[in-house]
Target: HEAT repeat-containing protein 6
Amino acid sequence: MATDAADFAISEREKFQHCYNRLRTFYFREDEASKTNLNILLDELIALDYSWIIVKTEEANHLLTKLCGTVPLHQERLVVKVCQIIHNFRTKQKIDLEERSLDLLTDYIVKALHRCPAWVQAEMLKAFASVLYENCDRVSRSLETLLGQHGILVQLATLPTQDEDVFREAVQCLECLTTKPASGDYMEEKYALICFRMFTNLLHQTQSAKLDPFAKCKILTNCLRGLQNILQVTKAMPVDQLGPVLAAVRAYMFYGLCNQMPSVPESLYPAAYGQLDVLNPQKGDENTEAIGETKESKTQGQKKGKKKRNKKAGVKGDSENDHLMSFDEEATHLVTSLSLKTNEDPLFQPAWTKVSSSESDWSDTEGGQGSKFRTYCTRVRQSSLGCLHCIIKTTDKKLMFGYWSSFIPDSPHTNSSSEQQSLFTIIMKDAAPKCRLGALTALTSLLDGTKLLLALADDSEDVSMAFTPFSVILGSTIKELHRCLLLAMLAENFPITLTQLIKCLGTLIANVPYHRLRPGLLTRIVKQIRHFINHRDPNVRVACLTCLGAMASIQPPLMEICHIVQPSHPPVGTHYLHPTELERSHPRIASDSGINSSQSVSSSDSSHIEGEKVPGPMSSGCSPGVTTPGQGSSSSGIQTPYFSDQTLQAHAREISWVVKLCLRNILPQKNVDRSGKEIDNSYFEPLPVRLESLQVLAHLTKGYFPIIRSSVTLLREVIHKCYQERDPVVQLHVAKVLQEFTQVLLQDVQSSDKVTSPDRLTRQEVLDFWLSLLNGPVPAVLQVPFNNPVRATTCDCIANIGADTFIALPLDKRMLIITLILGLTSDEDKAVRSAAIRTLGVFVLYRNLREDVSFMSDATNAILGGIDDKSIAVRVKAAWSLANLCDALSLNRDEGDGEFMEEFPDSLLYKIVTMATKSCQDNDKVKSNSVRAIGNALKYLPARSINQENFVNAIAEGIKALVKNIGSGAMKVRWNACYATSNIFKNRDLPHGRVSWTSDILNALCGAVKECKNFKVRINAALGLTSLEERSQFGSVQIFSGVWSDLISALKAAREITDFAEYRYRDNLIDQVCAALVHMMSLLTPDDLVCLQASVEREGDFLMESLDKYWTTMPMLSQIGMYVSPAISRLTRLTNGQLSDQTQTCIQVLLAICQRLVMPDEGEVPERTVEKSAFIQTYD
Model:
């Protein structure tokens, strides 16, 4: 058979070669013989079987060039045949046109279109479409001729038209012109906009035009695909065209569905949510029961009968008690609801469940045409959904959110009118799996990235309001999304569509604020996807795991998820017939796990998942320790309780069924024969299933660690086994699991000092875990120069070891870790270098390591090497680590570690200051830590180094860099620079007040505290001014009085807020500025008072009023109190000196101010009621 096919292809190739050779030497004359010979040659070329590749690119280009120069335009019949050959070469032989051939063909066809009659134009346009396909960048010179004001395509693709075929092919040309070329270049923006508007206008006009139904379908498909092409390339949606395009797309989403031909409105407008009304939950029964009723052929008696049957069948609406239903009741409700609606309204029945051809809308005599037309309608719907997906992807989420009500229902509808059709109409009714898939893809894209937009959703029970709040509409929409997706899951049986449906649920889970809704939605989702956890299609299993991972990623953690994930049994019996290696080593997993059993789990074993009332969110009362904001209040807003560690840990003694599921997906499983006997060779689940299972474990570890605590031993073995695998992707994913696990393990150990619990991991268990890693795969992974992402992530894991665990390790293991990390700081891969330097930045803060001069010297050299790295990522981590290193040096000085200060070399200290100064000119992310490093390095600087000439210059350059970053740059850099100056002033060995840079720093701080728009910068600037502990550090009297005046100005400016976001920092700023002023009072000298007389006389009343007002509002929270007593003592001593009357008056004013700030006795502090605040701080 293969030989015959090859012989046939060779024969066709020989025929083409014969024709090609004859045409190369052919010369056309205006006589009958020449016309006849050319006609015969063209017929022979057309008659060839082009299903085989028989034409070479060079031959095709030469042949087409020859034909364009040979066949005259007035020979219409010959021109038609030339167009057929062009079409065959481009579409069947996939010939790439050369630049010269493309230009000749374009000019030839455009001239022919202007000259030839209409009956020839259709074939020309068909060939022209194949020429333009993916070539819009190469025909840019002809775009004005095609798309200009009098362009040929603009004229031919405009309604009304005299020739339907020409119109259809012209639209086809426009679509091909918009396809993305291989080069990546595209047509100019103005031509793309012309095409966009033409497609939009045609979508609005074609439906009402008098065209053949099949031609109409083709034209609509071309227009929708053309819009999709433009949006995919330009990535920009014209805002002025959004309403009209969405109106057309929404109309054609339902084209031919349920035998309906929609009308296209002029435009679609954002919903006015204030005018909508949400369905009363208490009336949901009636509305849901009536969902399938139609007015045709229905008598009033029939309606009553159906209502009675519905009530007998127990069909329920979306009532507020649905979340208390058991899964069996809920599944029965969904299936019964679907079947009843199907009986009442044939249109509600999912069309792909119709098996009998006699149920078709078309008669038997029209079966062929009817089937063809349905196929064409399906293409229209599919193209419309694809276009909608592109519109959603290229439109701002906030802008698209206004059109949600046109595509997503916010309540169960009482009828199936076109105004209430939504994406779920297609998902539930469309017979074509690709259309259902397209609708789900568009819905997924619509939901993705809307977490902030849905954050206000509310599930209020109060329905007595005069209007429906927007938050309640959002809550109702979210509930309807869950309801419809779960209904669709019951009916869907196409694997690809089912996969997308579950992915859509996962996207919904990731964006919904479940803590503001009543519990139950997530439980229903898990009860549905439980049936697909062991689906034969691995893509479906991956989608289910993605849903579980999305649940585990919800923040804040919810008690409902704990009750879903926590039990040792899954919601229903799932079949794992083959034990894994881990089960044999840990019988606890396999014994009565509910996963290994071939029988379903009894209802008594999983009653807490199957809908029975349990403590916590699933019952009326919450367990002790469950955090339930708003509990006991009738107002909604925060409905679902958060979980507390103590409550959950008391019940999480068994291994979670989700953990078991993930472990079985990750680890190898044994093959068994029909008799149940094990076969030697084991097998793994498909790689996507294994990777998604590892991600679920990572999410579960991060958000719900109490559930993982009882599985530490199992996780340790999984980590070991996955690290030993050769697949780098598996190693990377298990490294991510280890990273999350070590982070929460460190937090758990640190919190155990504050909260004692017998269920927490002991320090010995944590130490054993780390010893198993260090004795296992971790050292080998770090030393093998392959799979750099795994090595980098493993470095990050080691950084989470913690100071207490590190010091408890044996000496050889500590030396192993330090040796490995120091070696990796010079690795060839930038990610590994970055992670190793960051780990050093953590280690330098460990007490036992920061007191080790040898380690600190090695770490300094390694970190300074990263400051000069070519990679910005490495430099950012190096700057952060350098700042931590300087923090450690500063701590050693504060703790009086004189031995360390003597042994730490000045040469390294000099490098630290100079390299930190140099990096202050780098990226903002580097600067923010470099200024911090300068501040702590100069705070540490010992007296022996300050007077050295090289250090004098280095200090001056470092101060200059700080001053520059205080005055300009990113806000984080500026407030870190201000804070760095407060550290510099704490080193009394520095020549503060005796060198020129003192005034530079003070002027920079005063400028920041007065004028910076960011209040956090102002606060840190005021803090820097408060850090000068001696009068001599200010320098001259003029500098001191200038600082005083600037602080007074800053106090006035603090009351003027231009940015409302800074309001929450205002009180802190005023407090810090007042503290700085009172602190300066404690440093006053008689000479200072002479300069301050005028300022105190002018601003005394304002200063007293401000301090008194602020002090009386929050005396217990202010920092002013620590400076009041020294200020009073200083002013009292000054009154005893020989001063002028004006100076004495100045002292008395200041003394009166300070005396009003004296803290009253504890019994005299008036009890203040807590003021209501319009602000709620949320901490991450």
Q: What stands out?
A: The two ends are 69 Å apart (CA to CA). The chain is about 60% helix and 0% strand. The beta strands are 669-672, 678-683.
